[in-house]
Amino acid sequence: QVQLVESGGGLVQPGGSLRLSCAASGRIFELNAMGWYRQAPGKERELVADITLDGRTNYADSVKGRFTISRDNAKNTVYLQMNSLKPEDTAVYYCNANAKSGIGTLRRNYWGQGTQVTVSS
Fold first, then answer.
1. DSSP per residue over 50-118, as a string?
2. How, if at all, do strands 2-7 and 18-26 pair?
3. Whether the Cβ atoms of residue 82 and residue 70 lie closer than 8 Å to each other
4. What is the pLDDT of residues 22-31, one digit of tens each?
5. Is residue 27 within 8 Å of 1, Cβ to Cβ?
6. DSSP symbol at 16
7. Over the chain, what is the mean pLDDT?
8. Cα distance between residue 2 and residue 102, in whole Å
9. Residue 87 CB neighbours (<10 A)
10. Which residues contact 54 (CB under 8 A, 6 or more apart)?
């Protein structure tokens, strides 16, 4: 099984910065694309950014120019650097990974438990 654990969330003032981390552990045979999603109260979960194994990135229009996704394959970790944060960025942020847990298994999506990001004065 593959486990994802997020960290780095918290309370920050508008214009501030946070750096989220998500470390994959457990039975990992292949770790492929990873990404960050977020869900605000009363809203649908949405893609924030994702990154392929070779480093190709994709961002939601609302965060382009402010957020940067990266990964460290040696540590099985994906990061989300969030700058110029706005109140509308407030949400629970979830880590996602597409992975294969072993030979003979199929690739599937795994989810972290989520970390709260609150942008407020």
1. EE-TT--EEE-TTTTTTEEEEEEGGGTEEEEEE-S--GGG-EEEEEEEEEE-STTPPPEEEE---EEEE
2. antiparallel
3. no
4. 999 999 999 9
5. yes
6. -
7. 96
8. 10
9. 11
10. none
